[in-house]
Amino acid sequence: MNAGVGAGALAFLHESRAQRVVFAPGQAAAACAEEAARLGVRRAMVIAAPSEAAIADAVAAGVPTAVRHDDVVMHVPVEVAERARRAAADGAVDAVVSVGGGSTTGLAKAVALTTGLPIVAVPTTYAGSEATDVWGLTEGVTKTTGVDARVLPRSVVYDATLLTTLPPELAVASGLNALAHCIDAMWGPRADPIDRVLAGEGIRALAAGLRAIVTAPSGLAGHEQTLYGAHLAAVAFASAGSGLHHKICHVLGGRFALPHAPTHAVVLPHVLALNAPAAPEARRRIAEALGTPDAVHGLADLYRTLAAPRSLRDLGMPEDGIAEAVEPILAAVPPHNPVPVDADRIAALLRAAWEGSEPR
Ligand code: NAD
Predict the structure, then answer these.
(1) Is this structure's pTM higher than 0.90?
(2) What DSSP designation does 77 have?
(3) Which of 73, 191, 234, 320 has fewest C-beta within 10 Å?
(4) Which family does it belong to (predicted)?
(5) Do the Cβ atoms of 252 and 313 come closer than 8 Å?
(6) Minimum-distance ligand 1 atom for the alpha carbon of 174
(7) Would the CB of 52 count as within 6 Å of ligand 1?
(8) Residue 263: CB within 6 Å of ligand 1?
């Protein structure tokens, strides 16, 4: 069932995802130990990439740990997932604690998917994977995603102090990845009025938080707002499902091995410009959340302030990839996208995103 914007009837189905969410700035270690204790954890597998190890050492210090695992690769190749599952079995672990970005959370989910082990997630980027029941695995160049209640972390510990070490350009790209969750949640295939409220508040918090981060990259206030917005974004997105934006980024990321967050950042203004004219209610909500008269111009203004990434060419996508990506994107266009899309529209969108020109 889908209650489309402007459908004229308040009839919808909204499913909440059960999860404990702890916002504890500066208190991740205590909160993580408490969440693990509540789950009765005695032999945890702590997953963190090598670059996240120092954060994980501190955060998981109070968790009874049987296995430390740092073999993390973006988009979770199946062989990486298999190694992690083997390590979990060999260590007879009873829970997974992930401390890191979306790649680390994704590996914890891959373990939970086949073992049913509970996850305590401590995110260190704004990717939002910790608040969704979506998993992803990559075989060769093909990434498969799915939805499974087992991969939804039982507890999430949000500690904004952990994100103050993000390089500013990564913080911006990751925050715009979260903004894309909010904007796609306005018209995703299962988008409902509750998702739109969460997404609107998410946009407000993300815009304010990211503006504060570029002014003071290590200041806590900006990261707190951005983390709050990223959580709302992921909750809204998990409920609404992947809209056109995510389908485009999924195809591009998989085919051309593009970095996840910057790809989302580049594509988002183009999808907004495409859909906004046919989605007046979403356009109004996004504009209101950005505090501007118009959503498309408001997002452009935010991008200028953030010096956001603008071009797929700069991210390493080959020019002939534009033609290559059109058909797979068309095949994945979700139902209820506000604007009917055809090959010409997708090609024009990709061309503009590749060149880094203004969205049309
Ligand atoms: P990432 O996890 O790959 O992290 C990017 C880089 O930042 C890594 O080198 C990491 O070690 C480093 N890093 C992480 N936290 C840091 C910190 N606090 N300080 C300094 N460096 C830090 O990137 P990401 O964008 O967080 O996650 C991308 C992955 O997450 C993709 O595979 C994407 O598909 C997945 N994802 C999944 C969902 C979902 O719902 N399943 C949602 C969003 C993203």
Answers:
(1) yes
(2) B
(3) 320
(4) Belongs to the iron-containing alcohol dehydrogenase family.
(5) no
(6) 25
(7) yes
(8) no
